[in-house]
Amino acid sequence: MQKLISKDDIILVTGGSGFLGGHVVSQLASSGYNVVSVGNSKRPKKTTEKNILRVNIDLMDICEISRALANIQPSVVVHLAAAVGGIGANQKNPALFMYKNLQMGLNTIQASHAFNCKKFLMCGTVCSYPKFTTVPFREEDLWDGYPEETNAPYGIAKKTLMEMCLGYNEQYKFNCVNLIPVNLYGPCDNFDLNTSHVIPALIRKIDEANKAKEKEVVIWGTGKASREFLYVEDCARAIKLALELCDTPQPINVGTGSEITIKQLAIKIADLLAFKGKLVFDASKPDGQPRRCLETSKALKHFQFKAKTSLEKGLIYTIAWYLGEMYGE
Q1: What does the domain layout of the chain look like in residue ranges?
Q2: pTM above 0.85, yes or no
Q3: What is the pLDDT of residues 87-139, one digit of tens each?
Q4: Could you report how far apart the first and last alpha carbons of the chain are, in Å?
Q5: Rounded to an integer, what distance in angstroms lies between the CA atom of residue 191 and that of residue 195?
Q6: C-alpha span between 62 and 2 (Å, rounded)
Q7: CATH number of 10-184+229-257+293-308
Q8: 154 catalytic residue (yes or no)
């Protein structure tokens, strides 16, 4: 397949200092692309590529975005910036998450279109799917019901932006790509227990229980809900491939196509951390969506993506990174 972008293109990545964005910026730069990373994270970066420019842009301000695009002159924009968190964070911030995600996305899409960028890629969220969706989730099911209540505002905001891209493609022939990644994990993830997702939260909780010689770890929910997890570097590779090869604006799932229950996941992480205590599931806390597993054939068809990293290997890599950051191990 002929590549749709070239090494002469400047690729601007919003959220470039974030979890997924950091890996995307690194992969694109390592592949020889000129990358502008937008973000304000204070996390130190270890990348040494000379073809990365790091800038701060207030994505809530369309005038600032427009000025930045005119100055930087990107031909490709990847929109990854998001206000996001786990179930607890979503419950505490429904209005904020909806407002910020909508505002950043609307501004970035409109400014990129107005600047005549030749390609725009946006990552949506698996939270956009209805709460009760036939497994595996198919892209055609996105509008067949209401999302799971604890993260509905975030999911609806992202789904609205996907529809905006489709509208701009239909009305203005705006060249856009809509990807729907499943739950991500890996090195550089957010391990703050107030805002983290399930894998980093479990790793930190179980590790801290180990260090404190505690006999049990309490985990939110019944443990019966299932999730599908994609290693972050695999997702970054999917984004690079989609930029190079994908030419459809229709939403496309990005995942592994396999699921695991939260209880099974917790047991696996406890084993990897050699935790000998008891795992206690607090059924008074929400499970979130009952099941989550994607049908991923369109990603293979449209841009030849298939996940390479098994959950076992990905967890080992993630735990090793976490322990190195926490204890220098």
Answers
A1: 10-184+229-257+293-308
A2: yes
A3: 778 788 899 999 999 999 999 999 999 999 999 999 999 999 999 999 999 99
A4: 43
A5: 8
A6: 34
A7: 3.40.50.720
A8: yes
